[in-house]
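Quick check before the chapter quiz. The format below is the same one you will see on the exam, so make sure you can read both the input and the output lines.
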Amino acid sequence: MSAVPLEAAVRADDREQQGDAAAPLGPRARLFPSLAAVYRAQLSRARVARIPLLFVATFQSVGIMILMRGVVDGGGEARAVVAGSSVLVVAFVALNLLAQYFGQLRADGGLDHYATLPVPPASVVLGAAAAYASFTVPGTLVTAVVGCGLFGLPLANLWVLAAVIPLAGAALAGFGAALGLLAPRPELATLLGQLGMSAALLLGVLPAERMPGFLQYARDLLPSTYGVEAFARTFGPDPDWAAVALDLAVCAGVGVASLAIATWAYRRAAVR
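Here is the expected output.
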């Protein structure tokens, strides 16, 4: 058994400490790879639990169109009902379910887990919102096809849903996440999410011409309204594509703003 001189051991320890101090830090996690990782994790986790709720959202929207079929014959009102019912599936998930998810995550301490991960806060919000929005695609398509069959509307321009779903979903998901993160209790987050979905139902499905004046102004403040308007315009014989693009641009702008608010709310909730 050999003995190491004390002086040599001290010098070796000093070199080790200097080497540790000079070691370069790992690269900071980038937004898009982190977003993709959060998206895949959320998608696999929520797949089984959310499919029954998505069925409920689709059944609800189809049932509303069947009820409105006895009141609305056709024309612009039929376009508004079909477009509003289709976007309502997005609102059910983005507002109601996402508010419940983040409210429960905050109450259970799940935000502490995400706070320890080397990912930007924006990637957590965007990844969860994108995962929940992905569940709306089948239900929205089914609702739109059934609605076109009920009211005799053309199916040729359903491709515009490829832009309506993510843009309206982003605008609504940002507010849904913010409601869940800012609510002091999960029960209040659930209530606020349901109220938001009820507003999307009342102001998005009913034809604007049949609403009182003050509700028409409130309708203009709802982010999903512009997605509904963009989709409804495509059912006409000669769609005004410039107006459709403008409505989608408004949805995109509101989506950026709402997701920024949700990211701020996540930072605020994570440090408490």
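If your answer matched, good. The mean pLDDT is 80.
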